[in-house]
Design a protein that fits this description.
Chain B: Belongs to the enoyl-CoA hydratase/isomerase family. The complex is a heterodimer. By secondary structure, chain A is α+β, with helices and mostly antiparallel strands. In chain A, 22% of the residues lie in helices and 35% in strands. Chain A is elongated. The chains are: A alpha+beta, B alpha+beta. Strand 3 of chain A pairs antiparallel with strand 2 of chain B, so a sheet runs across the interface.
Chain lengths: 147, 142
């Protein structure tokens, strides 16, 4: 199965905004075994200058995964999910995510190529706050391993 | 938590190395928290059927642990303005009580006039380099 090159540039807006909550930040922080007080305790976050607890730097992968899932769910894109591994990941922040953020996201397919028997698909998810402020851009490249 | 400032660091400043455990339970918990339920991260039968040596850790779990070395060092996890990695080898996680380990170190590669510094990271597990081109840009107080 080959990835359909016609999908280059295609955009997938999330059907609804993602609300960042204290409980979800805590769950994610516990899952990565990182109990930094800025993630868990509002007073500690305020001492660093934030209005509420902030999310770990890799937290927005949740938004990127949801966006990529929208693309990968399309059978005409031609990605065999059982052969997918994560190739690379990046985050470019305007500011950290914080509890109370309501983020709208759009995921775009930015590159499709074949390399050494594998297929590579690159996607970028841009997250903006309710007032249109850019918060983070998450980029991910997935490798569809050749069989 | 103590915070470092831009004037405290120079090109070549070392970031304290840390080692993190990764067990099957960590992967199950991470799957739930992140929403990444790809069975290669928890189902040995499936992982082997697609040609992997065993269950492998989510790359994003490794990226989170590596990033923690930076945020523990700066004292402010909101200081990260850019963070990127390439996953160069899988972290293979056996089904026992010890699991695997990820060892992360870093050093300051560049100091910028806008108050940021670039940190290069290395991450190893089971003798393999599991991240490549791993770097973070962090903004430090003056």
């Amino acid at each position: 199965m080959a990835i359909n090159p016609d999908y280059l540039g295609r955009e997938y807006p999330a059907p609804e905004a993602y609300e960042v909550t204290r409980g979800k930040i805590r769950e994610f922080a516990e899952a990565i075994n990182d109990l930094n007080p800025a993630y868990l305790d509002k007073a500690s976050a305020k001492a660093l200058g934030y209005a509420d607890v902030i999310a770990p730097p890799t937290f927005p992968v949740i938004l990127g995964m949801a966006g990529s899932a929208l693309a990968l769910a399309d059978p005409d894109l031609g990605v065999d999910f059982s052969r997918v591994v994560h190739g690379d990941q990046s985050f470019r922040y305007s500011r950290p995510l914080r509890a109370g953020d309501v983020l709208s996201t759009v995921t775009r397919i930015t590159d499709i190529k074949v390399l050494g028997g594998n297929e590579l698909i690159t996607m970028e998810t841009v997250a903006e706050a309710a007032d249109g402020e850019h918060v983070v851009t998450a980029g991910m490249m997935l490798v569809v391993r050749g069989s | 938590m103590s915070r470092i400032s831009h004037s405290d660091v120079e090109v070549g400043t070392q970031i304290p190395e840390q080692t993190f455990p990764v067990r099957r339970l960590d992967l199950v918990r991470y799957a739930g928290a992140s929403g990444d339920f790809n069975p290669i991260h928890w189902n040995e039968r499936f992982a082997k059927s697609v040609g992997l040596p065993n269950v492998i850790a989510h790359g994003m779990f490794t990226m989170a642990e590596a990033g923690r070395v930076v945020t523990d060092w700066t004292g402010d996890p909101g200081s990260v303005v850019d963070y990127s990695v390439r996953f160069s080898a899988p972290v293979v996680v056996p089904d026992d009580d010890e699991g695997a380990e990820i060892t992360v170190a870093g050093k300051v590669k560049a100091k910028h006039e806008d108050g940021t510094v670039t940190v290069l990271l290395t991450a190893r597990s089971g003798g393999a380099k599991v991240l490549a081109k791993a770097s973070a840009i962090v903004r430090l107080p003056q």
